[in-house]
Amino acid sequence: MATTRASVPVTHRIKPGALARREERLGWILLIPVLLALLAMGLYPFFSTVWYAFQQGGYFGIQTTAAGFTNFVRLFHDPQFLNAFKFSMLYTVITVIGQMFFGTALALFANQKFRGRWLVRAAVLFPWAIPTATNSVIWAYIFNDQYGLVNSLLEHLGLMNPAHPINWLGSPQLSTTLIYFLAIWKANSLVALIVLAGLQTIPDEVYEAARIDGASAWQRLWRVTLPLLRSTLLVALILRTIESLQAFDLISAFTNGAPGNATQNLGLYIYVQIQQFGDFGYGSTIATVLMVLTMLFVIVYLRILHRPQTA
Length: 311
Fold this sequence. Notes:
Layout: H1 16-53, E1 55-56, E2 65-66, H2 70-75, H3 79-110, H4 117-129, H5 132-142, H6 149-156, H7 172-199, H8 204-212, H9 217-228, H10 230-245, H11 249-254, H12 266-276, H13 280-305
Antiparallel strand pairs: 1-2
Helix pairs in contact: 1-13, 3-7, 3-10, 4-7, 7-10, 10-13, 12-13
């Protein structure tokens, strides 16, 4: 006698494609509040800044008049803007290179297997744990020409005449160099943290295979570790470049642009134009230029360093 199999009604079956579409719709529904918040906090300030860049005067947007491209033309005839632009470029290039180099080196060292490495990892993160403004104020006291720790040590060691103390923050060259060192010391911890996280994802089998093939420690670094860390290093590079271009609190609390305007960057110059002179239009123009400059850096990084993985 023939038997029949129990079958599931077709109307109750869910096709895989339909299930995937339902999950996608649910994902978008859950993301809508976040996207709206990002749009409100990102797009509105962006477009309002661009709009004010074509206005003239007006403290916080009050009593502005249309200026066209007058503010942008003014940039090229403003020596203080050109100096701030030059300082921002040098600051970004020098500090980002230093942060990437020393941060990667610290991560490679902290990733080694030895007793007490947890203490090393905690020490690596210590500079980043201190607020930036606090770091800057501490360094300003350390290098103060009258009562700073550095001059006191040099005096006690007989390396400095007390009658002629080194004016660290009064010299454009010395203060600029100190800012570079402070920025590198402060942020290489973040780079180390990001790179260390990337190192944890590299399987030990990859290094074991390289050792079997006769690769030296230097070859394993250049041909195994760094290529596998490309995406991680790219993320760290983009984050540090954006932060360096838009730096404000570190420089403001350390030198506030002094001596003169030798250490004034674009972020600090925007603040001066808006808060001190009340020129919201010109300050927004500089901010617009800074936004475009930041995006150009990111695009160049992605074009040069990003390599899509092929099967």
